[in-house]
Amino acid sequence: MNSRPSQSSRLPAVLRSSSASARAGRSVDQALLGSVGIVAILAQASEVGVIYGGHQVFEGLTFEVRDDERVALVGGNGAGKSTLLRLLTGEVQPTTGSIARQRGLRTGYLPQQPMFTPGHTVRDVVALASGDAAALDERLHELERRMGEDLSDAELEAVLVEHAELIERADAVSGMPVGARVEQTLSALGLPDDRWDLSIETLSGGEKRIVGLAQCLLEEPDLLLLDEPDNHLDANAKTWLESYLAGRKGGTVIISHDRYFIDRVATSIVELEDGRVSKYAGNYSRFTTQKRERLERDAQLYELHQRELKKLKASAEQLTQWARQNHKFAARAGNRWRILEIEREKLAEKPVPVIDRRRIDVEFSADRGSSLVLEMKALSKSYGDREILRPFDFELTHGERVGIVGDNGAGKTTLFRLVLGDEPATTGRVRIGPSIVTGYYAQEQETLEPTRTPLELVRSARAMTEQSAIGFLVGLLFTREDALTQVGKLSGGERSRLQIALLILRGANFLLLDEPTNNLDLPSIEELEAALLDFGGTILTISHDRYFLDRICNRIIELDGGLVREYPGNFTYYDTHRGRGAVLTHQPVTGQRQKKR
């Protein structure tokens, strides 16, 4: 297919123009979706309601997706983000309202757990998504033959529309064979080439998600629906995906907990909250500003309405008093009471604006401890001939917030285990400062005993009554039933919140956080960030959440092929100066940190 010239040359200019015009105003499954200017509406939800098991997920949801926008869906866990994607695919039907789609709309969908037919290699699975080049070429010839036939206006329009679509698909892959595109995409997404010829069922869950994402991208659909596509991607793969999505043609709807990713990709934000939808222009950073401004305006209007209601009520009561003495005031009093009731009903239909919705009630407090929190001298780690960390010196002082970054397998978790004493160093030593109380947040949550309950763990961390312990857990969004459930039966998000609870109770002044934002929804992540920014102690954190690292950290340590590099700033500073940080080494003569550029 790489030798075939662009198919658009096969149509006379007038037909190419007609074909483009036809594409701009295609009809849809349930309703006619035209264009806004030259921008086509791909899908439109109208007054959609969804009920699952008696629970109202959505009510009166109305919004549209255009072919020139990249929409990020945000909201708390359980808000219905994944359900909304499935509504757009047609997998889920609305209980009320309707979803209209452009006729002939090609949709690509990445669910959280993609399913594959066993027995095929990774390479074959992804190649199938690219379509059969020969079949594409054959169909183009067939459509061009039909253009010479005596067709009705409607039939000709349908032929022109399909022809224009196929030309776009053909031109998109022109110059690169399908196999090369498959390899390029898998490589860019970070799947090692030694996995490409394995049977799909032998891959891990994370690897299958990468394959599913590659499939969706190579399908080149009109509407791309991605449920957490950045999960399991390393930093380079995320950067590539951000660039790809920003440059692709067609509409895109994304669910992601990575605010940095959303900032770089999204052109609009759709927030799902309390079963309602609100749409904001711009990326995530603009959304947070716009939302706060809107809530503040809503709160001011609400207070104004409340004052007006009080005035109306006072006026109605005064007229009622006068009516007892003079009946000619009775009609005016009755009218005033009716107006008051109407205004109350109007106000009752609107939700009470809440500016600060605190998802989890987190407040870290601890004694200051010593100025020197952590010291590493000539520290190194190897497994056989494989060198994970070359000898280096490092100090962490009170109040610093340091982020550790690096590719998967670079040694980030190993470094944590060295600090905690769970892993012996090959050379050198680690020293924790006096009066330092360490609190460890484990990514795999292995610090939690699966057979014990949150109530038991909280009371073992600090002496308190059962009532006080349950009250404390309620502040972190646990119900009484949750408090009495074995840890092994809790969700990932619930276990994350429990780890946070135990760190608070133990009074740690040095927090080691291994992927603390995993399993938390965006509102809870932001609440955690606010608490960490107020925390008076010291933080050492591993995180793939670049937005989190930007907000929390004032120093970045990069692990790269055994080297340890230091960057005096947050993630944005690191990203700008990547690969040019000071290399930390060990200087045996002075025992002090030596930096090389």
General description of the model:
The chain has 597 residues and is of the alpha/beta class. The protein folds into three domains: 7-282, Rossmann fold (3-Layer(aba) Sandwich); 303-348; 372-437 and 507-596, Rossmann fold. Helices cover 41% and strands 22% of the residues. The chain is built from 19 helices and 21 strands. It has helices spanning 13-24, 81-89, 122-129, 133-147, 153-173, 178-188, 205-219, 235-247, 259-265, 284-325, 330-348, 412-420, 454-461, 466-474, 480-483, 492-505, 522-534, 546-552, 571-576, and strands spanning 35-36, 39-52, 55-66, 70-74, 96-101, 107-110, 223-227, 251-255, 268-273, 276-281, 372-383, 386-397, 401-405, 427-432, 438-441, 510-514, 538-542, 555-560, 563-567, 582-586, 593-596. The strands form four sheets. An eight-stranded mixed beta sheet has the order 15-16-17-13-18-19-20-21, with helices on both faces. A six-stranded mixed beta sheet has the order 6-7-8-4-9-10, with helices on both faces. β2 (39-52) and β3 form a beta hairpin. The protein is flat.
Write out key terms for the chains shown.
alpha/beta; 41% helix; 597 residues; Rossmann fold; 3 domains; disordered C terminus; 19 helices
The CATH architecture name of the largest domain reads: 3-Layer(aba) Sandwich
How many alpha or pi helices?
Answer: 19
Structural classification: alpha/beta
Give the biggest beta sheet.
8 strands, mixed
In CATH terms, what is the fold-level topology of the largest domain? Rossmann fold
